[in-house]
Amino acid sequence: MIKIAAVAVITVLVAVFCKEFKQEYGMYISVAGCVLIMLMVAGRLSGITELISRFSTYIKVDSSYIGILLKMLGIAFVADFSANICKDAGYSMVAGQVELAGKLSILLLSTPILNALLDTILG
Asked: What's the predicted TM-score (pTM) here?
């Protein structure tokens, strides 16, 4: 976490410094810093997938549901990341649409899980 915080602080300082010369340079630097932080976070996701896989051995769950949950997690991260970049650039309306698209995508992906839950409750 310290590396991520350091990258974030350095990105902000360099972006603020470069905004004095050219406004768009600050935006480019902040996007590059965000991508770098996202890649650093993505490296830690393997631990989450291992934990979910271990849970699936204890609980009798179809492995396709685990894949769906991981896809939903990925959609949430990508939508949030994209929306934050849009907000930072001053395009809050586009950011809202990205967030809406992410929520709808997660809802569509969750239908098999909701069906299985309903079958379990009713059965």
From this structure: 0.70
